[in-house]
């Protein structure tokens, strides 16, 4: 007897599974509030060089002081990173006579003055992460995703070794500790370290939630469970926009998005360990207890199964055999799956975070952009629920990723003044990008056998977080060519989408238990 047959006897999608999924979904809301927090945490308001000795300009207005002290851009705005070495009083007579001589300008030497109308405080204003220090501002997101990358490797292995639930609780507990330490940071170095450690901790949450839910659900409802879990990411996306709108100080914003992890820890005590994992690892007594509880809650009170029957379902291991990340590449079919899935995950995350962290690039208010980007994800997920069951996982994965790249590429060609058209294309691209992300989570959890599923998710999550870590840094390429970041996101999305055609189809296929089921 396979575990899938056992699920049919106890009802593979009854009250027991629905309760588990709802608790896991509430926990998932925490993730986007941290993963996309950089948009508001490190927002850079308009700024200009601080002007020394302003008391000397007693007869001039603030606007006139700026006029003679700060050079203007061609569009009339004041430059952010330069000031005149000496006041240019002739500009009071004709402000259009901007000097062409760069020798009379200099970098900001006395700090910066920031516009606080939108943000009370961000890490940019706290530690002057602008101009020459702009790279450090973008690196904050990279540090976080480096942490997520390391966490994917660590928690992928540990959750296969010690169980899903205990590692999920550990990752949430560490998320609370490091999230609060981030909020109390007194230097940029402290913030970089604590955000990296927060990324490590939250990676466990991201990695474990979906497989833990999926391993309790039957084949028929597996897609629905995956889409439902994913929808709560979008809800978290929208809640981040609301939270950031209400909390304009970066430290209190960190507290606000970290606090819900405590509630998740309390709720998770009602979620059992994966019976599928327990059986695969020979812990049949615990699995037996959880299965009987599931049957009772689902109204199958006549259900009985012996411990001996469960032992026969245990995946046989050869003497001394253990599974690790190396096991993903030992056999030919698994090797091909792992290489292709890694490329796909990199492309999905790279393009998703490239779009998600460019909220001001489409002419919309950043809070509204964040909210709309969250809203568009929900219909995208619902459409994917239909598509992955109609045309299959492979076609859905490939085409959503390719169309994401084409939308990014289209916005390179559309002129900046066409704000409405660019915004519509961007929202469509975000929808396709989220559809690709939704599919890849579901698809990957079906590609790997139970004995290696978390190792497989850990490896692919590592590749995704590598893409997420590089995505913010690509924005710095606009110094080379203004459109180079978008060209990069477009090219990676299209190429990785094409690789998805090489993966096997998993529609209506039983979840594999051992490596022999794959090979």
From TrEMBL:
Keywords, sorted A to Z: Cell membrane, Ion transport, Membrane, Transmembrane, Transmembrane helix, Transport
Gene Ontology biological process terms from the UniProt entry: monoatomic ion transport
Cellular component GO terms, alphabetical: apical plasma membrane; basolateral plasma membrane
Pfam family, one: MFS_1
Location of the protein in the cell: Apical cell membrane; Basolateral cell membrane
Family stated for the protein in its record: Belongs to the major facilitator (TC 2.A.1) superfamily. Organic cation transporter (TC 2.A.1.19) family.
Protein name: Solute carrier family 22 member 7
